[in-house]
Amino acid sequence: MGRNVTVGTAAVLVFNENSNRTGVTIQMYPTGVASGNTGTVAVGKGFQPSTTVGAPNAGLILNAGATFIESKDSEGLPVFKGQIWVISDSASQQLFVEETSEEGGQ
After folding, report:
1. First-to-last CA distance in the chain?
2. How much is the pTM?
3. Chain center to CA of 45
4. Which tens digits make up the pLDDT trace of 32-65?
5. With contact defined as beta carbons under 8 Å apart, do 87 and 9 qualify?
6. Burial call 10-37: b when 16+ CB within 10 Å, e when fewer
7. Domain 3-101 belongs to what architecture?
8. Dist CA 86 CA 84 (whole Å)
9. Are 20 and 105 in contact (CB under 8 A)?
């Protein structure tokens, strides 16, 4: 089951390490749902991301309405099992996050 997360200019850990993870979804709500979602959110897999353009730890960038999805069967690549962090360049950005796991996972 997913949950809502509010993120600002300090990094937030949204998922702990989970060896049984089978999927992750991170969606930045569109401005029609969360009118204040006018910034960008950086997603870091295994590190705390930065919102500085061109920084080596910039991570994956989401804007309003964008979704990051990683699942066990996407392109035959393994799902990342480590910590996943988010940070924004603006205050109070609203996200929906969800993790799926195999039996016995977190």
Report:
1. 12
2. 0.90
3. 8
4. 999 999 999 999 999 999 988 888 898 899 999 9
5. yes
6. ebbebbeebeebbebbbbbbeeeebeeb
7. Sandwich (2.60)
8. 7
9. yes
Give the tens place of pLDDT for each residue, 1-38.
Answer: 899 999 999 999 999 999 999 999 999 999 999 999 99
Give the integer Cα–Cα distance in Å for 91 and 73. Answer: 34
* Backbone conformation region of residue 104, classed left if phi is above 0, alpha if psi is from -120 to 50, else beta: left
Question: Is residue 47 helix, strand or coil?
Answer: coil
Strand, helix or coil at 45? strand
Which H helix or E strand runs over 97? strand 93-101
Task: Dig out the tokens for 37 from the structure.
Answer: 């979602």
CB 84 within 8 A of CB 17: no
- Distance CA(96)–CA(83), nearest Å, equals 17
Q: In the structure, what pLDDT confidence band is assigned to residue 102 with cuts at 50, 70 and 90?
A: confident
